[in-house]
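F.,

This is the one I mentioned.
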């Protein structure tokens, strides 16, 4: 009887030890997973901080313009109170100042909206593509960089996109279609063999249109003179329309 009791105790102790070891292993795995998520959050926070500093700089410049304009408006109002002899000329000047004030507000609203969208797009891309994706900002465009070897494999003249790359491009398209006010450009160098480099860029653009349902009027292929092995997918406002609208607004205020 004593031997049986001892055996049962040993079995129970062994079972508890095994359970504890498994729990400890699971706890370590959970801690490791949480650390990985923390790294992604810290990187996203850093990117958001950079975008917020840019917004702050633009707001400071616009506030300075607003302060100058307020001073001119105040001086003009004082002058109006002191003299009514040149009311016609003063009225035109006052109207011009009011137009400039409206332009300043419009520019501030546009830049603020674009920067807010950029922050959302970057956050969505990082969440969708993972922490290893090369995502950044370049000249107002959100850029995702990929190596040609990732897109087309190791064969020099291959023009067929790899299946793994298609899955990656599809994830970019999902985010792009979510923010359909943005245009999408595929940018790559012609390299030593333009007959390969050019069609590869165009092939990626075609995949966005035909396979991933990005509207063709939002797409553009750009082949540059260079030898980089990197292809860039850029999400950005329609710069032509954006700056033409700005130019027309400024002209109308002259």
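My design for it:
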């Amino acid at each position: 009887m004593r031997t049986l009791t001892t055996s049962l105790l040993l079995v129970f102790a062994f079972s508890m030890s095994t359970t504890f070891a498994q729990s400890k292993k699971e706890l370590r795995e959970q801690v490791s997973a949480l650390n990985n998520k923390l790294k992604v959050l810290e990187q996203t926070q850093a990117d958001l901080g950079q975008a917020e500093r840019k917004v702050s700089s633009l707001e400071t410049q616009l506030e300075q313009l607003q302060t100058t304009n307020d001073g001119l408006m105040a001086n003009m109002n004082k002058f109006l109170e002191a003299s009514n002899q040149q009311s016609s000329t003063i009225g035109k000047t006052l109207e011009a100042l009011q137009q400039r004030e409206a332009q300043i507000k419009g520019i501030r609203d546009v830049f603020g909206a674009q920067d807010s969208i950029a922050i959302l797009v970057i956050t969505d891309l990082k969440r969708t593509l993972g922490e290893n994706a090369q995502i950044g900002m370049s000249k107002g465009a959100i850029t995702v960089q990929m190596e040609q070897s990732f897109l087309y494999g190791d064969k020099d003249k291959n023009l067929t996109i790899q299946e793994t790359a298609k899955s990656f491009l599809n994830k970019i398209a999902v985010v792009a279609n979510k923010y359909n006010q943005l245009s999408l450009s595929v940018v790559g160098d012609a390299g030593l063999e333009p007959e390969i480099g050019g069609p590869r860029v165009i092939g990626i653009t075609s995949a966005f249109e035909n396979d991933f349902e990005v509207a063709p009027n939002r797409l553009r292929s750009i082949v540059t003179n260079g030898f980089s092995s990197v292809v860039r997918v850029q999400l950005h406002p329609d710069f032509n329309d954006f700056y033409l609208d700005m130019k027309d607004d400024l002209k109308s205020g002259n």
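The longest strand covers residues 141-147.

Talk soon.
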